Structure formats: structure tokens, C-alpha cells
Amino acid sequence: MQRIKKGDEIIVITGKDKGRRGTVLRIMPYERVVVEGINIAKKHQRPDPNSGVAGGIVEKEMPIHASNVMLYNPATKKGDRVGFRSLEDGRKVRYFKSNGEVLDA
Fold first, then answer.
1. b vs e for 51-81, b when ≥16 Cβ sit within 10 Å of the residue's Cβ?
2. Coil, strand or helix: which one is 66?
3. What is the CATH number of the domain that holds 28?
4. What does the DSSP 8-state code read for residue 67?
5. Is residue 65 situated within a structural domain?
6. 15, 25, 36, 83: most buried, per Cβ within 10 A?
């Protein structure tokens, strides 16, 4: 089970986008995540008339390492560490370490 999953709201803790929040779009190999609106790079793209892609400079979200982000806790309005716990019915869930609130209900 992973600490950060697709659809989670995260906050960046280091780097050029420090303090910004966003939603995880996808999880990539080697512990990297792509976050909506974070780590934007400009890509020079060639036009491809066969597939209808216009050329020019496009902005693209690039991956960021998972160690540079924390899960955003709406209760404390800060980034929070995540732990794992087994419930009585045998399910393994994630929870916030600061207040013990369970993420995966």
C-alpha cells in the first residue's frame, strides 16, 4: 500500500513550488508523482497534422519525487505524515499521524 495515491491532495514541502497545494494526477515508477499545477515545464512541441496537434510552446506538469510532498490534512491545514493501521474488520487503512484521523473510510 502506498502513502500517496491518485486523487490525494498534497502540499509541496521543498523546491521551487514549496507551499503550493495540488491533486495527484498519477503515480509514476521510482517514487515519483505528477501533481496538478506543480512543477510546470515549457515544452517546445512540433506540429503533427496527422493527429491534429498544433505546434508551439506548451506547459506540461513534470514528475516530482514523493519525498518532496506531504499529504494535506484539512483538519490542521498543514502537511501531515501518514501511517498504516488495521481496522477490526481486517482492512488496512491510512491515517494521519498528528490527529489519528483515518483517510480511507
1. eeeeeeeeeebebbebebbbbbbeeeeebbe
2. helix
3. 2.30.30.30
4. G
5. yes
6. 25
Look at the alpha carbons of 97, 76, 21, 105 in this order and tell me if their dihedral is positive or negative. Answer: positive
Q: For residue 24, how many other CB atoms are within 10 A of its CB?
A: 20
What SS3 class is residue 68?
Answer: helix
Query: Which domain does 67 fall in, by range?
Result: 9-80
Q: Which three cell numbers stand for residue 99?
A: 490527529
pTM of the model: 0.85
Mean pLDDT, all residues of the chain: 94
Q: Which residues pair with 79 in a beta bridge?
A: 72
Looking at residue 53, what DSSP letter applies? Answer: B
* CA-based nearest residue to 68, from 4, 2, 14: 14
What are residue 29's DSSP bridge partners? none
- What cell numbers appear for 15 in the block? 523546491
Beta strands in the chain (DSSP E): 9-12, 21-28, 32-35, 40-45, 56-61, 64-65, 69-73, 78-80, 82-86, 92-96
